């Protein structure tokens, strides 16, 4: 348990990069297909019930949502991508906003990319990983809803995805379940490094 993340509070939403908070300090972005479990993961990681609204209607989060941890550090909930029922023109608009954010945001230090453990590495996920590799952006993958698979099947998926990514040095991954609160400490440790937070025991 890391109480630092429990301080997260909603700061603002931005439909475009120009509406974002000043580009200073450190940001870590959360991305993934709609319905991958992004809002649930953010809530679990921050020990809050409704920080990021979880929704049964996928594709609702169309904005960049900024959450403040302290004056220097923010979490960003990126628009869920790949939801089929949204018009092509809107999808293209979101993609542009996403690409723009990843390419131009100086304070962006890392990305947590969420994939449903039952459907990992979709075309959209691969595209995101390619962008991140191209930008030199470290990425940590959460294989979400791990409670939906038996432990053997889950381990196998973890192994397969690891194998597919073995050439990418800046990509790490883990199992995660917001429902069972599995993998929270492991993810906090990655965030701690990106946010340059030293654990007290290290001093
Ligand atoms: N079984 C299970 N379901 C989950 C988990 N995380 C999210 N879900 C469900 O998956 C659906 C989408 O979750 P949500 O967090 O809104 O996904 P988002 O669209 O990526 O923000 C909801 O019905 C959640 O209840 C999990 O760890 N385990
Ligand atoms: Mg959401």
Structure, explained:
The protein is α/β, with parallel strands linked by helices and 203 residues long. The chain has a single domain (3-198), classed as Rossmann fold (3-Layer(aba) Sandwich). 31% of the residues lie in helices and 22% in strands. The protein contains 5 helices and 7 strands. The structure holds guanosine-5'-diphosphate and magnesium ion (MG). Magnesium ion is lined by residues 38-39, 52, 55, 61, 80.
Please give the number of β-strands. 7
Q: Which percent range fits the helix content? A: 25-40%
Could you give me the name of the CATH homologous superfamily? P-loop containing nucleotide triphosphate hydrolases
Architecture in CATH?
3-Layer(aba) Sandwich
CATH class equals Alpha Beta
Strand content is 15-25%
Identify the overall geometry.
globular
Distance between the termini: 19 Å
Query: Do you know the CATH topology?
Result: Rossmann fold
Which class best fits the helix and strand makeup?
alpha/beta
One letter per element, helices H and strands E, the order comes to EEHEEHEHEHEH
The radius of gyration over CA amounts to: 16 Å
| Number of distinct helices | 5
Low-pLDDT regions: none
Cofactors, ions and other ligands in the entry: guanosine-5'-diphosphate, magnesium ion
Number of domains: 1
Mean pLDDT: 90
The biggest beta sheet is recorded as:
7 strands, mixed
Question: In a few lines, what is going on in this structure?
Answer:
This protein is an alpha/beta fold and 203 residues long. The protein has helices spanning 38-45, 88-104, 123-135, 151-164, 184-194; strands at 9-14, 26-32, 64-70, 73-77, 108-116, 139-144, 171-175.
